[in-house]
Amino acid sequence: MESFVDVFLFGKCYSVPDNLTIMGAMEYAGYQLVRGCGCRNGFCGACATIYRIRGDRELKVCLACQTKVENNMYVATLPFFPLIKEGFELEKVSPDVSVMMQLYPEIYACVGCNACTKSCTQGLNVMQYIAYAQRGDFAKCAEESFDCVMCGVCSSRTSGCRRSGTESSRICSPRSCRSPWRN
Ligand code: SF4
Ligand code: FES
After folding, report:
1. Which residue, by CA, sits nearest to atom 5 of ligand 1?
2. Residue with CA nearest ligand 1 atom 8
3. Which bin fits 112, alpha (ψ -120 to 50), beta or left (φ > 0)?
4. CATH of 4-77 given 3.30.930.10, 3.10.20.740, 1.10.1660.10, 3.30.300.30
5. Is the CB of residue 40 below 6 angstroms from any atom belonging to ligand 2?
6. pTM of this structure
7. Which-ligand-closest: CA of 157?
8. pLDDT tens sequence across 114-146
9. How far is CA 32 from CA 29, 37, 108, 160, in A?
């Protein structure tokens, strides 16, 4: 016999079969997914989602197409984050540390809180591959980050690693952090 769980989608409670993914539950509840939905197979990174289980303090992140619903799960999709993607011509840049400092200075504002690694929906060691990038070890960086689906979850959880983060990182440290994102 089919079992049901209560999930809260955008603040409204729905009873849905417990074998559904979050994405499946949204459609079961009648939502038509026109944004935040792509491959449905964990590859495109379009369905980054946050949730909290009632009674738990922690906010969790996941891919909605890959994560099963749980009872008393409060779900919201991740909003657009205004990240900057630098453009450059591969033939015209030198593969060394200076180009990282020039194109991605925010990665040098890392305070080592490891929130990016803890949140990665693919289980990647994000802080480590960013450390490789900082040092100009691009081969190791590429190897460690190969399975990244660019869902943006790690960026959403790290105030020091955005283009505007240089300033916020001065007041944000693992010990002083009051962010609800902090584990
Ligand atoms: S490294 Fe960041 S963007 Fe890539 S899959 Fe992990 S959380 Fe998503
Ligand atoms: S829809 Fe593509 S990763 Fe979820």
Report:
1. 148
2. 151
3. left
4. 3.10.20.740
5. yes
6. 0.79
7. 1
8. 999 999 999 999 999 999 999 999 999 999 999
9. 9, 10, 41, 35
